[in-house]
Amino acid sequence: MKMSSPSDLDGLASTFGFVPRAFLEQSPFFRQGEALFAGGFVPAPSLVTLRTRLTREGGSEVGAPMRNTPR
Question: Which of 3, 6, 47, 68 is the most exposed place for a label (fewest CB within 10 A)?
Fold first, then answer.
């Protein structure tokens, strides 16, 4: 997703040497929903725009019973 730090971009470039440097240099300018996909799950490094989510946002707390603590 968005990477702004030049040192972080250099680290990514050395770790993911198969990604064109020009793609990495675009990442500081990504807007929400934009990303760089690279690796075994795509045939070639790709700049992508993600669509809106299909599922309802969750994010609520999960209730847990209180534990009895000895006094």
Answer: 68
Question: What token pair was written down for 19?
Answer: 């990604």
Q: Which of 64, 60, 63, 30 is nearest to 47 (CA)?
A: 30
Structure tokens at 24: 């990495």
What are the pLDDT digits (tens) for 25-64? Answer: 888 888 888 988 888 888 998 999 988 878 777 777 777 7
User: What phi, psi does 23 have (nearest 5°)?
Assistant: -70, -45
DSSP per-residue codes, 15-34: HTTTS-HHHHHHGGGPPTTE
- C-alpha 15/C-alpha 9 separation (Å) is 10
The reply to whether the predicted model has a pTM over 0.85 is no
